Please model this.
Amino acid sequence: MKAAVLYERRQPLIVQEVELIDPGPRDVLVRFVASGVCHSDLSHWQRDTWSPLPLILGHEASGIVDQVGTQVSRVKPGDHVIIAFGNKCGECAYCRRGEPYLCTPEDPAKNISLRAHARRNSTTVYGFIGVGSFAEATVVPESNCVPIATSVPLEPACLIACGVSTGVGAVINVAHVQPGSSVVVIGAGGVGLNVIQGAHLAGAARIIAVDINPQKLDLAQQFGATHGVNSSADDVAGRIRQLTGGLGADYAFEVIGLPQTIRQAYETVRKGGAAIVVGVATEDAAVQFSAPDLMRSGKRILGCNAGGVRPDIDFPLIIDLWQAGRLQIEELISQRFALDQINEALIALQQGKVTRGILAFA
Model:
């Protein structure tokens, strides 16, 4: 099969033939129909991260089951699926608690990010977070496959795997935003727009988008933002206090992954408010807070791992909301690329030229 392989950080991906591993007894071979190009993929291309090389990036994907292992029971060839990225072992303490987004396999050999995904001659090639969707196909455990109705369009559905579910989940699952509340979203990119959608869905009265790009602020209003603040020109904390009666917001979502914007989220919430860290920072990033201020203000700092999503529950729920007209998903796609254009897609994302680009295989 064809795959875009990353051999060296910050260098172009090489589209070439690789040999996909054979499915094990509980594995599923999925032919991709679409894959989103997400900022997390860009981060692992640009940064020196934990992900092993050579690597097939991509983790936000949908497709059609082509082959199943001998012990697979939840899907069959021909089924349409959204792939849930990362470990979903079903056995660890976190999976048993209903927190699969924190899955930590007790046996390190079951970490799907570190198992062989494909081969190029004698070289082992890995799949990013166990998916590797910048390729024509993948092999994943059956627990990572969420079947969906064949009537659901697979191209936009790929975005449910990460961008949509992370953004909406941050609001619904992690922050539990209350109706009538005020919400700040710092970063109006692909995930940030879905935080905005989630806040609108939750009934927030004020949804304030913060970004340095005026075009993104305009787009944010189409997804439910009531106000926009240009952080390159405005005093963000001061402007948000103006918009919230002088108190600050009830919730502030940081969706960039920079220490300064994480700190900004904390500064923009009122006493008793919550700052939610959604963005993926570098491994050595640190943010300082005053312990006495944290105690006296009653503010909360919440980590948000993949929107706190339980794929088997939340993916179908998101599809129902989408089909009922309560969420916009197709509108997030601003450009389609072929696999051979993957480097163009990453650069377009890096330069802020796309809301969400997708690789379209069908």
Observations:
- The chain has two domains: 2-161+329-360, 167-305.
- The first helix runs from residue 39 to 46.
- The chain has a mean pLDDT of 95.
